Amino acid sequence: MNFGTYAGRALHTAVDLINSDDLSTGEAAATLLRDRGWTVDQPLTPDEVERLRALRPVLRYIFTSSTPHDGVRHLNAVLADMRALPQLTNHDGAWHWHYVQPDADLVDRVTTRCAVALLSVVADAGASRLRTCAADDCTNVFVDLSRNSARRFCDARTCGNRTHAAAYRARRRDNQPQ
């Protein structure tokens, strides 16, 4: 499953924001956004950082809601609150969507693009692709973009390996003669 660069960046931004531990400074927040292709010329203000922190549980809800309908309703309400109005533009050379007015601030742009990206996954591939990590000690979320929709861990190298190693040790321990 592939989302275009523009939508993909917003999707990865949403996951990174939800899973982020360090949004303590304007520079940390700016770095997170820059790493996902956002144009951020200066550190975010304390108010912007607080708004990004507040956005994390708002976006997380679609991953953890009891039904897909609840999660979709929730993000639709976010878009309504933002007065999102999709407009196709090519001001940077490539056609892409804007969901808020050109004078909207960075956090409003992040909010709308992330919400639309998550809703696009539900529309294009189903809510079951929005998952929480299966590792017992991890609360991270991820979007399963695998062909067969079989991904279980936010990161196979850490959470997956740790879980599989623990299961192996438990099996060996259970099979030891008493």
List keywords for this structure.
single chain, 178 residues, mainly alpha, Jann2411-like fold, two-stranded antiparallel ribbon, two-stranded antiparallel sheet, 4 strands, 7% strand
How are the SSEs ordered, and which strands pair?
Elements: H1 5-19, H2 26-35, H3 46-64, H4 68-81, E1 87-89, E2 96-98, H5 106-125, E3 130-132, E4 141-143, H6 156-174
Antiparallel strand pairs: 1-2, 3-4
Helix pairs in contact: 1-3, 1-5, 3-4, 3-5, 4-5
Protein name: Putative RNA-binding Zn ribbon-like protein
Pfam families: ABATE, zf-CGNR
Domain Zinc finger CGNR: 129-172
Question: What does it look like?
Answer:
- With 178 residues, the protein is mainly α.
- The protein has a domain at 5-127: Jann2411-like domain (Jann2411-like fold, Orthogonal Bundle).
- 54% of the residues lie in helices and 7% in strands.
- A two-stranded antiparallel sheet has the order 1-2. It has a two-stranded antiparallel sheet with strand order 3-4.
- Strand 1 and strand 2 form a beta hairpin.
- Helix 3 runs antiparallel to helix 4.
- The model has no long low-confidence stretch (mean pLDDT 90).
Question: What's a quick, concise take on this entry?
Answer:
Helix content is 54%, strand content 7%. It has 178 residues and is mainly alpha-helical.
Q: Poorly predicted ranges (pLDDT <50, ≥5 residues)?
A: none
CATH classification class of the domain at 5-127: Mainly Alpha
Radius of gyration: 19 Å
Report the major sheet: 2 strands, antiparallel
How large a portion of the residues is in β-strands, by DSSP E? 5-15%
- What's the N-to-C terminus distance? 49 Å
Morphology call: elongated
